[in-house]
Amino acid sequence: MTHFLIRRIFWAIFLFLVATIITYLIFFVIPADPAALAAGKAPTPQDVARVRHLMHLDLPIYQQYWLFLWNLIRHGSLGHSFVNRQSVRYLVGEDAPVTASLVFGGAVFWLSLSIPVGILSALRPRSLLDRIAMLFVLVGISAHPVWIGLILSYVFGYKLGITPIAGYCNFFPGTPGAQCSGPIQWAYHLILPWITFMVLFAALYVRLIRANVMETMSEDYVRTARAKGAGERRVMVQHVLRNSMLPVVTILGMDIGLALGGAIFTETVFNLPGLGNNLVSAANADDLPLVVGIVVFATLAVIVFNFLVDVAYAFLDPRIRLS
Amino acid sequence: MSELLVVENLQKHFPVTRGLILQKEVGAVKAVDGVSFSVAAGETLGVVGESGCGKSTMARCVARLLEPTGGRIIFDGRDITHLDRTQMRAVRRDMMMVFQDPYASLNARKRVGSIVGEPLEVHGIGTEAERKRRVQELLKIVGLNPEHYNRFPHEFSGGQRQRIGIARALVVNPKLIICDEPVSALDVSVQAQILNLLKDLQRDFGLTYIFIAHDLNVVRHISERVMVMYLGKAVEVGTKHELYAEPKHPYTGALLSAVPIADPSLGRVRKQIVLGGDVPSPLNPPAACRFHPRCPRFVDGKCNVDEPLLTPAPGAVDHRFACHFPLERWPMSEEEIRRAPAFAGAD
Amino acid sequence: MALLEVKDLRTSFRTDDGVVKAVSGVDFALERGQTLGVVGESGSGKSVTFLTLMGLVDPRHAMVSGSVLFDGEEILGAKTSRLREIRGARIGMIFQDPMTSLNPVKRIGWQLEEAVLLHNDVTRSEARKRAVEILKQVEIPRADQRIDDYPHQFSGGMRQRVMIAMALINNPEILIADEPTTALDVTTQAQILRLMKRLQDEFQMAIVMITHDLGVVAELADDVLVMYGGRVVEQASVDDLFAKPEMPYTWGLLGSLPRLNLIAARLEQIPGQPPSLLHPPSGCAFHPRCEFVMDVCRQELPELRPALGDETHRFRCHLDDEARARIWDAKRAKLVTEDVAA
Predict the structure, then answer these.
(1) Who among C216, C256, C341 is closest to B260 (CB)?
(2) Predicted ipTM?
(3) How far apart are CA C266 and CA B199, in angstroms?
(4) Between A and C, how many residue pairs show a Cβ–Cβ distance under 8 A?
């Protein structure tokens, strides 16, 4: 198994390099001139040339990439935003917790809903519960998060006034400069976003879990367990769940990794200052270092989580662990 | 009778690789490790063996569905081992295959007429109308209703699907048909139908068969000659009369005695040889004689040092075996087998 | 009193395509220590009969009726808790495919211990001791080490031994084996059959051997049930069944076997295929394929009646005794027996 892990690590590094190279190259293809953008308002050609030199943009591409990589590895630096000159790393560091709050909190919600519903649906196929669950699945997959978010925001935020309409509160109380802070405010402002974000995933997971549990229940070893005299509860817990949840673990890891890259729709609707939202505004403002920085972070998140998923799977399935 | 197929020292090794980045070959699964045999025109060669013996792999290599890693295949006087795809295509008209699983070997999305007619299309034989006629003729020959030309496979039972597979193999008038466990997946009462059909077709069309099976009863019924394989090697080859009446290799003896006899009075009195252990993996086959770890007459220092080669049985017409201490007579009980005589088989 | 008495057992399944009549009235008895062979092909109902008896059919889709007396107690329709006490403790069951019949993510020691702990109030370490012991009895080498291995680390034959161990670990009175050797190589099959015979003596238990292989039945069984289309069509002692089969399906079955000890240029073939249980044939289920079919066969189901002079040998057929004797003598004369008494 160590072989397996070492190989996965090598692949992870390789993938990271490829992803960053491609991202880096892209901003040489788009028709914006970074030097012109960075040079401030109404620059003269000499200003632009000077900025270009300072930004090493007159060097060949591979050297620029190398400098970027070196900067990243050596100093952990992602450059500075064109728009406000702040360190990109700082900005990403500010945005990431917001997205993380949304994604992890949302994951807790969607798992708490989809696991019981999925299992119960599988145990009672075609029952009323099952049919309602399948209806929910259909709606959840079809309805767009923006639409859901706006509806929720309108009904609960505007009309009923139960929840805030938008905005984010810092988790840690007493943060200077923030309008609101503290865990309660934090959760309060995230309720609608959590619900919006999790609907799609909950729908997908209910369907997945239901299918997995149904399939596992018809496996021969479940019949063996019953033939031994095991009761239904024992059969479910000891034999069915462990085996049917295995694929859920892997998919969960991948989904979280992906979502960390930016739950754009939800963040935009509720105006949460997370990675997704800021990626959109950075792209609109042609703020290339910030765009690259967020993409790097997202890539890293995906790669790391995929790797963790591989490790978890190898750990949980003895057939892989011991081969 | 002339030899339609001659296989010399056929080998198929699947490489096993290890390594972090660059995959290095550290070993090989020797699925087929030097098998030689021949099949005369018009006869049936039965091939028996248990899991891991390589019989299916061997069949696929002969048909060049898998590329052999060594050896020669001479079909109808021509060395086909290294022919390229275009050249091989012409050969494939004469060498067709029938597979084990009647549910998986037919494309569920195609109509039966299209399935059976596909070989004709591939080889560009006849016009569309002629092909249709030929397909219907074949459906009749294999005992199906020609009017079912437009039905789908799922509308047929397992036995009927196997007939479709046979029709497909027969439609281009091949010389050789390789049957890979064609009745193993069928109910007993249907097996007999298919076996009878295969025999009738052989007689009517002068076909040559290679018949692979694990059921010794079935093989004996349908074959003239039989080859027993173990872990990638042929351990005994001969006419069925000689092989079944006087097996020389202890493995053949064990196989024969392991088959349950559908007659309680006989079953009770017979002497049974039960082998110990499991069939070993072809990844790490035992040294020299591959059967030696399980052989009741294993002689240390000989069987695990010198590999026995296929040698003719004295006095027999067509019977070869690969053993240093072949069975002196048959039947033998387990205790009798363990007493290996002092003489060496053929070295 | 017989250990197991089954009367008029019927099982039907509700499916999307209609009602499937898997078992349509099965009667038989099993004595202590007896080996009963149950022979049949697809759709014969041989497996469903015993799954029903064990309460392993899905109650949501299955309609079950009849009576099953186990040691005098009615277990068909008994409370689930009572059935659970019996399953795995007094009646053990093993299935066809040992690869898929064991939980892949649990060590076999755990699975064996589970079988013990479900029925016995003992500590885990006592259960483990029992598990090692039974693994030795089924001839698993180095049992005390291998007990901590996972199923995928065993070969097919070894896995089936583990299954047998699991079924026998609580000393049951009956072992029901549903095609236990069909998925195994013939030399492995010989090992497993020999093991089962030995264990039967050691454990003094009855065995029900469900199979399609008449050879296995001939080797192992004392008595045989032949099933077709969800019913018992013939039952007899194993010697009587092979020496004097009494109805066309059994004749066909025996005649269609290629055998080492018989020379037949052409095998006897039964035309057609096994019956659909969704739309079973009227009258005698075998009539569409029967060489000797008469009008009455299409209309009326023949009763299970005793053979001439032998109460224990019963069969279902409308042909009269004289006709059947004539036909069987003619068939037998066509076969040439070779003396290959191994």
Answers:
(1) C216
(2) 0.87
(3) 8
(4) 76
Please give the order of strands across the beta sheet that includes C73-74. C18-30, C4-15, C62-70, C73-74
C59 touches chain A (CB under 8 A): no
> Does a cis peptide bond (omega within 30 degrees of 0) precede residue B331?
yes
d(CA A243, CA B307): 46
Q: Are B331 and B271 in contact (CB under 8 A)?
A: yes
Report helix, strand or coil for B190: helix
Nearest to C87 among A227, A242, A246 (CB): A227
Interface test with B, best of C220, C228, C273 (most B CBs within 10 A): C273
Contact A88, A71 (CB under 8 A): no
Chain B neighbours among C 222-241 (CB < 8 Å)?
A: 238-239
pTM here?
0.86
CA distance B320 to B238: 6
| Burial of B329 from C-beta contacts in 10 A (0-12 / 13-18 / 19+) | exposed
Please provide residue B236's backbone torsions phi and psi, each rounded to the nearest 5 degrees: -160, 140
- On the CB side of B217, CA atoms within 13 Å amount to 25
Chains that contact B by 3+ CB pairs under 8 Å? A, C
Phi, psi of B171 (to 5 degrees): -65, -25
Grouping H, G, I as helix, E, B as strand and the rest as coil, residue B29 is strand
Buried/exposed code over C297-318 (b: 16+ C-beta within 10 A; e: otherwise): beeebbebeebeeeeebbbbbb
Do C84 and A225 count as a contact with CB atoms less than 8 A apart?
Answer: no
Return the SS3 of A281.
helix
DSSP β-bridge partners for residue C337: C262
Q: Are A213 and A235 within 8 A, CB to CB?
A: no
Question: Smallest Cα–Cα separation from C128: which of C139, C115, C142?
Answer: C115
Residues of chain A with pLDDT under 70: 1, 27-35, 37-38, 40, 174-179, 262, 323
- Residue among C156, C238, C258 whose CB faces B221 most closely: C258
In a mutational test of the A interface, the residue from C84, C113, C159 whose CB has the highest number of chain A CBs within 10 Å is C84
Q: Which of B211, B258, B253, B250 is nearest to B340 (CA)?
A: B250
Task: Give CA–CA dist C269/C5, Å, rounded.
Answer: 35
Q: B192-234 pLDDT, tens per residue?
A: 899 999 999 999 999 999 999 988 889 988 999 999 999 999 9
The residues on B that touch A, with CB distances below 8 Å, are 18, 20-21
Q: Quote the pLDDT of residue A28.
A: 64
Output the CA–CA distances (angstroms, integers) from residue A299 to A21, B141, B178, in the order listed: 12, 63, 53
